[in-house]
Amino acid sequence: MNPLDILETGAATLLAAGLAAGGYAYAAMWPASQIFGRALTAPRNPETGPPEIALTFDDGPNPRWTPLLLETLARYSVKATFFLIGKYAASQPALVRRIHEAGHVIGNHTWTHPNLAVTSSQRTREELARTSAELEQMLGAPVHYFRPPFGGRRPATLRIARELGMQPVLWNAITSDWTATEPEQITPRITKLVEGHQRQGFATDIVLHDGGHLSLDVDRSASVAAAGQMIERFSPTHRFVTLEEWKLAD
Q: Per-residue pLDDT for 180 more than 90?
């Protein structure tokens, strides 16, 4: 093989490897991807009636900000879905029960919040099973929903969740609210996403954070305020729902 052929072959090999790596990253981390298994994001809006929004909150429970969030939701009579980190839930059982007793849906967000795109199947199963067992013992009710931290998953991840009786859930509206210091850094971006999904005929599954995976002691004042702003903005025209009202499309 002459040097030019060697160079061309090497370049083709590198290109193929790059495309493969990019494809895997898309399948593993992009919320809209269904390559590694089907997950609930947001369905089409109903043909009759108002468009729908599901407010979902990750990384709680947070002993300071989750109670204030619950007060905000109660003030507007809105139900939401909370994806809880198991180790934090175990330290806040009264708060977990308060979320449940207020009529909100509680989901599994793993025990320690690892990136499941690079986590072994055995550890994935342990993370999910331990969290569900802890939550179900507190609530006296099964946990039906699971959201992978960071959205990360491998081919086995969603299969394991289903084997444990849970529907995998991703999202179609998120912003970096975990770094925000003011709700105005969150609300305009989410508003544009909701309006875009509505034009395309889809409901919106919003992710905000009432906690943080690195510590219980994080400031989520901006996220709590943004949740109130979103409810005020869209309550006149949209219906707020929990994930229990949505089904995975056939």
A: yes
